[in-house]
Amino acid sequence: MDGKKAWSVAEAVDHKGFPADKTKTGGWIPAALILVIEISERLSTMGIAVNLVTYLGGTMHVSSSESANIVTDFMGTSFLLCLLGGFLADSFLGRYLTIAIFAIIQALGTGMLAVSTRLPQLRPPPCGRGAASNKCEPASGMQMGILYMCLYLIALGTGGLKSSVSGFGTDQFDEKDEKEKSQMDYFFNRFFFLISTGTLLAVTVLVYIQDEVGRSWAYGICCISMVIAILLFLSGTKKYRYKRSSGSPVVHILQVIAAAIRKRDLMYPSNISFLYEDSPEITSRIPHTDQFRFLDKAAIMAEGDNEVDVSNNGVSRPNRWKLSSVTRVEEVKMVIRLLPVWATTILFWTIYAQMITFSVEQASTMERSIGGFQIPAGSLTVFFVGAILITLALYDRLIMPLCKKYWNGRPGFTNLERIGIGLVMSVLGMAVAAVVEVKRLAVARQIGEVATHRGATLPISVFLLIPQFFLVGAGEAFIYTGQLDFFITRSPKGMKTMSTGLFLTTLSFGFFFSSFLVSIVKSITGGANGQGWLADNINYGRLDCFYGLLSALSVVNCAAYLLCAAWSKPKTTIAEQQQQMENMAKTSMDDNIDKC
What we know:
Blueprint (H helix, E strand, L loop, with lengths): L1 H6 E6 L5 E3 L6 H31 L5 H17 L1 H37 L22 H30 L7 H8 L1 H26 L2 H21 L6 E2 L5 H14 L43 E4 L5 E4 L7 H19 L1 H10 L2 H7 L1 E2 L1 E2 L2 E2 L7 H25 L8 H33 L10 E4 L4 H24 L6 H30 L17 H26 L5 H22 L1
Parallel strand pairs: 6-9
Antiparallel strand pairs: 1-2, 1-3, 4-5, 7-8
Helix pairs in contact: 2-3, 2-5, 2-7, 2-8, 3-5, 3-16, 4-5, 4-8, 4-16, 5-16, 7-8, 7-13, 10-17, 11-15, 11-16, 11-17, 13-15, 14-15, 14-17, 15-16
């Protein structure tokens, strides 16, 4: 038995369904093959998103506010569909098949987008010249409909695979093996570092190809890269470790809630030991907590809780919709504890949305030449991605070693601390953005009539935008890794894919809130001429006021986050809980020996 434990991985199997041999499966090589899919996904999604606003305005002749909303809705839908991917992975397909299927869907979507941007009949004619330069025929409903179809097919592929990639990557490491556990400690940072490298390629090479060679060529490269990534991913099939599904976590949550509501009128037992528990091993149970006591009623045993299992020789078993174990109830409580932090991180991604929409549009109006080279407006986000890579490298190579050496062996900032740092940086980023926009608008007023022409370049350097890109980018490095760590480590074992999808919905709701806020601000400040803060031509708007509003909202959000983080901080760590359970098991054994 001890020999089997030495070579096998608990709760993991190989591609044939046998216990996974740790000498032949898992580790960094299979994890790297999984990360290739994520790098290619980032290349495609970000390569499209960061420069889409210029395509919508310059080619499809859509207004600036509507272009921003189209981009944020596309990104929001991509991350919202992570819940669908997580549900399918946990309930039916498993993480491996989910990644493979939805990666193929995304490759199909980028291929269709490459074709649609190539055909002239799928875009309106160019704007007039000279005196008629402001007369542009907007895209037709059919043209926009085909564009939407391509974008949302890509969104479906992105959402489906994204929720499973990080979870399947962590499946390749055994938490009970000290060597592999230490490797997994670095996985989240390296995971984000590598996908940020994909983003860096997207905002530099891919955006340049879009502007200078052609969008269809750039999107064709995205399609080909995803096909190659799928082949590499499939090549590791025999090397992966697979975790058996324990059923849909959504169904488990609904069962606990339904049972608690059904038994809402029952009295609590005098001792928690009377609550129902069916976990065979004490160490696999989750200790009872006093929070959300109304859910404990789901574990109160009552008449009629059992049903006959016809498929198992008529043996009586509990009906999960009427009776839940203490462990299942505690799993639901763990998910509920994630929600306050979930809610207070949404606004960061609203600020992030401005970096790939209005900030890119700002860049398109500013002087971008270096010698004879014209920097594409979308490529300004290279400073954003550069900030992420620099921050992650410094954190991995400098901050973590210093913390281990001088901070009682701590491996760096906790996940909640990293999230807090990211939120503070986003506040500073929006404040700086507002100040820079004041200066840009002052230049636009000075040159007057010239600023009204679409594509006019103001005599102000685009490099003034670097601080806002850098602050929000560094903030993303902290908040993304902090959120990913928080949602995976604080969730029950059987709900890690769902919790990853829950984390990614903060990005989704952040983008959707951006669209909502843009629509509300445009409606309130538009006035009779329909301009206001978010005018069709940003040179005649007040984008600085919009950035100031976001900065103020972020200050309030930071205060709310501090309260939520203090509330959600666990009284005991998972390791301490496990130790408690082991002590309970030992005490129970000693009592039995004494009785004998």
